[in-house]
Amino acid sequence: MGIKNLHKLLRKWENVIQERNIQDFAGKKIAIDISILVYQIVIAIRNTGTDLVNTNGDITSHLLGIFNKTISMLEKGIYPVYVFDGKPPNMKNSILKSRREQRKKAKLKMKQADNKEDKIKYFKRSVVVTKKQLNECSQLIQLMGIPVVNAPQEADSQCAQLAKDGLVYGVSTEDMDILTFGSPRIIRNLSSKKKEIIQIDLEKILKKLELNYLQFIDLCILLGCDYCTTIPGIGMKKAYQLIKQFGSIETFIESLNETDIKKEYENLNKSLVPENYNYRNTSNYFQNPIVKDSKQINLQWTEPDYDKILEFMVSQFGFNKSKIQKGIARLRRAYNSLNKNNKQIPHYIC
């Protein structure tokens, strides 16, 4: 989910959300949460009403999508870094349970649907990206010479850390909570063929909204995030108003019993604040997530193993040999171009 309505809120300030051209990212290193990208790929293919499968009945949508998306980025001079999730924190258990229930309901509605449009709609909502599929993506990505980072917990916080430490320029994602984790910038729609690419910088958010970083975190918690429940009656506009007036969630909650506050916010009182409203722990997690130390990360872009890519995609997963060979030819040209323009494939050894 990221942060509920944060993007919508930011649209109210001029120049916080900037349209960019794909050429703007040539030569830049970009961190990517692989789970989100694979999810988008599978969703897009499910618009046809079916998954891409091989003769054994194995789903292969994720592999073809990652293969093509990676080649496309390299052709545009972008150096991707794919980040994989580890074990989610316990504070996310509630939202994960809710998502499982939603997928279960979607599968049931898909079976009950009596028209193609509804079947496809619920088919898309029931997507599950499996550990097996992600492992297969990791194998392919590494054969293509692209660095992989395995996060100890959340990929989004690890992506943010890579950007904070300067190992990458920014994070390509649709999840706004990358900013809450402190990434200096995010790029949305980087691999989209239909939507405009936009960039959002944390520094501009703080300046335009006249907030410090801790206040921005509290704003995001009030709006709604994956790690904490929300307070009923607080929407997008009121969340920003409260942070501007009180400076923090804690001060706001402490003020709820005051007479003048009761009059101003007649629909709000302390009884509406959930007992399990762990905003302090959530704020601390956004500030200090469990991530891999950048000094332990070795980012290198290397020459792809073209023969093994062909074997992996064709022999193991049954893709059309001619189509994969054409993709490999594009990949080879992209790497040759990068080497020519930059003398060598850039890398960090930290």
Automatic annotation (TrEMBL):
Ranges of residues in domain XPG-I: 142-211
A Pfam family matched in the record: XPG_N
Cofactor: Mg(2+)
InterPro entries to which the protein is assigned, alphabetical: 5-3_exonuclease_C_sf, Flap_endonuc, HhH2, PIN-like_dom_sf, XPG-I_dom, XPG/Rad2, XPG_CS, XPG_DNA_repair_N
Residue ranges constituting the XPG N-terminal domain according to the UniProt record: 1-106
Keyword DNA damage belongs to the record: yes
Statement: the UniProt record of this protein carries the keyword Oxidoreductase: no
GO MF annotation: an example: 5'-3' exonuclease activity
Gene Ontology biological process terms in this record: DNA repair; DNA replication
Keywords: DNA damage, DNA repair, DNA replication, Endonuclease, Exonuclease, Hydrolase, Magnesium, Metal-binding, Mitochondrion, Nuclease
PANTHER family: FLAP ENDONUCLEASE 1 (PTHR11081:SF9), FLAP ENDONUCLEASE FAMILY MEMBER (PTHR11081)
Protein name per Swiss-Prot or TrEMBL: XPG I-region
